[in-house]
Design a protein that fits this description.
- There is one protein chain.
- This protein is an alpha+beta fold and 569 residues long.
- It has six helices and 29 strands.
- Strands 8, 9, 10, 11, 12, 13, 14, 15, 16, 17 and 18 form an eleven-stranded antiparallel sheet that branches.
- The chain is globular, with a radius of gyration of 38 Å.
């Protein structure tokens, strides 16, 4: 039931303390706790103190809580905790797999099936892999990077493999009260962010700071939350669980909530970024004025193609280029800001030193193909809650002879600090040219898919690994509705096309018949003219007054005077 880590402890998170006689009794105290779910305990062998907590290595966001301690202290972690697997997310870690696992399953046909095995086992599975795909082997482990920080070299690192680690699980319940609907969320990991109504992100929002459970209340008749009334006693609304304080990323969840007064139907659904080397010979020098370079900023995909729109989570890049490739300058970028297209909310992506503020949102600026005239920063598409338009603004400074990169540090997924270079530190060697301000924008839409209709809570017993925030397509009812609408549109289009074809055919037939009749009339007139030549005036008068001539005269408006004139020819 428990995993013991000697000479380690979970600090500053104790909920209750007991004086016990043994480690086993401390474990029993944890299992018997009723006021909260006990996840771990610190047992001091010297003082016999048992300190239990509702946190463990997986629920805290930072590794600083789990740290080495006195040799007499043991960390005890409860492996029988019910995580709640209504909505679970797995993150993909490329190039490494855990050396030692808890279970191995054979004849597993896909990654998705392996993920289901991880969710369904009767213990806490925190990672899985299918490195041996040829033999269809699925490996499960209760370990992840959070529990391996004190282990030396726990991973086997090689190309072409990947481990899927459990990021977070959420249990969402809906309480349909008399005047409001309440969405209560429980997570297995401390949550920092906010939850809000999708169409009212500023007026119907709940900020969450270091909580395992949180909620949002949405009154039925409150315009600030924009709850929709679908029918008598039937209400619905869409909410977003957003991890970042300001922007929507591919880690966020979109949920569609349905509620009725009689509490008989509760459902939940998951729902576009000059180099001079060597010494300078001063024996014969000249001075000249070099104009400031023209710099552009483009938002592209990872292959360098320009984009105008994207979806949240799409792999993008922000690229800065000097237009004139013969320019002696290089450039560096600092104070890169992303702004909301509606209310000008903003988030700093590259600070004044040229370092990324959060590498999970945007990485460091790097040279493109080693060329200091072109810089690129990779990022995944994100958006602001209130708008689909994201604007980027940056200060670009030219420098001679070369832009030296800033030394930046960032924390990787395993909590370790890594140093890297970014083209962005202000230097004394700058030329004194004015900074250039560049602006670019892109339209980014989310992938929550609220328009796909109702989903049941049972539809989300198992969710996608390596989350992409696509709406779950498991609802047959939603698919049939979509097919019916598309079929209706196609049928109407075919009907209109058939009408146009019939109209065109009728017009062609009518025109052809008209031409034939006109040709017949012309031939008859020619014959009449030929027959009238050489006849007497009386005979011509008799022919002119005949019914056949009158018939053509009426239909084709052939003037009688033309025939009379021909008499004098």
């Amino acid at each position: 039931m428990f995993e013991r880590v000697m000479a380690h402890e979970l600090r500053d998170l104790t909920r209750k303390r007991y004086s016990v006689i043994s480690r086993e009794v401390c474990m029993e105290k944890c299992l018997q706790e009723q006021s909260f779910q006990c996840r771990s305990a610190n047992f001091d062998l010297s003082t016999r103190e048992c300190a239990i907590s509702d946190m463990d290595r997986y629920s805290v966001p930072e590794s600083r809580y789990f740290a080495p301690s006195d040799d007499k202290i043991e960390y005890l972690e409860n492996n029988c905790v019910d995580e709640g697997v209504t909505l679970c997310e797995f993150s993909k870690v490329n190039g490494r797999i855990v050396k030692t696992v808890d279970a191995v399953f054979e004849n597993i046909t896909s990654i998705d099936e392996c993920r289901k095995m991880c969710i369904s086992v009767p213990y806490r599975c925190h990672s899985f892999d299918m490195s041996d795909t040829a033999n269809r082997v699925c490996r499960l482990s209760h370990h992840s990077i959070a529990s391996l920080t004190h282990i030396e070299d726990p991973y086997l690192k090689t190309k072409g493999v990947a481990t899927y680690e459990l990021s977070a699980c959420y249990n969402v319940t809906i309480h349909c009260e008399a005047k409001e609907m309440v969405a209560k969320v429980t997570s297995n990991k401390l949550f920092n962010g906010k939850v809000y109504a999708k169409k009212r992100p500023n007026t119907c929002v709940q900020d969450v700071v270091n909580r395992l459970d949180f909620e949002i209340r949405m009154p039925y008749n409150d315009l600030h939350c924009d709850v929709k009334q679908q029918g008598f006693g039937h209400f619905s609304n869409d909410i977003v669980i957003q991890h970042h304080d300001m922007i929507v990323t591919n880690q966020d969840l979109g949920l569609s909530l349905q509620c009725q007064y009689d509490l008989s139907n509760r459902s939940i659904a998951n729902g576009v970024q000059l180099e001079v080397s060597g010494e300078v010979d001063t024996s014969g020098s000249q001075s000249a004025t070099v104009s400031s370079p023209n710099v552009t900023m483009r938002i592209t995909d990872r292959s360098g193609e320009d984009l105008l729109s994207a979806q949240v989570g799409d792999p993008l890049a922000l690229q800065f280029d000097i237009v004139d490739q013969n320019s002696p300058y290089e450039i560096f970028v600092r104070e890169l800001v992303a702004m909301d297209g509606v209310d000008n909310s903003e988030i700093i992506l590259i600070d004044s030193l040229g370092c990324p503020t959060d590498v999970s949102i945007m990485g460091a600026l790097e040279k493109v193909d080693g060329n200091g005239k072109a810089l690129r920063a990779a990022f995944a598409a994100f958006k602001f809650p209130t708008s689909d338009i994201v604007r980027f603004k940056a200060s670009v400074t030219p420098c001679l002879p070369v832009c030296k990169p800033a030394k930046c540090t960032s924390k990787s997924f395993d909590g370790e600090l890594h140093s890297h270079n970014s083209l962005g530190r202000r230097r004394r060697e700058l030329t004194g040219q004015n900074e250039l301000l560049v602006v670019q924008s892109i339209q980014v839409t989310d992938k929550f898919g609220f328009e796909r209709g109702e989903r049941k809570l049972s539809d989300f017993d198992e969710t996608s690994y390596e989350r992409q925030n696509d709406a779950n397509p498991n609802s047959v009812e939603d698919e049939s509705s979509c097919v019916n609408i598309v079929g209706l549109i196609i049928a109407c289009s075919l009907f209109l096309l058939a009408q146009l074809i019939l109209l065109f055919a009728w017009t062609c037939v009518w025109q052809r018949r008209k031409i034939k009749l006109a040709e017949g009339a012309a031939n008859s007139a020619d014959m009449l003219y030929t027959n009238m030549r050489g006849k007497s005036h009386a005979e011509r008068h008799d022919l002119e007054s005949s019914s056949e001539i009158s018939s053509y005269d009426v239909v084709y408006n052939i003037p009688r005077t033309s025939l009379s004139t021909s008499t004098h020819y």
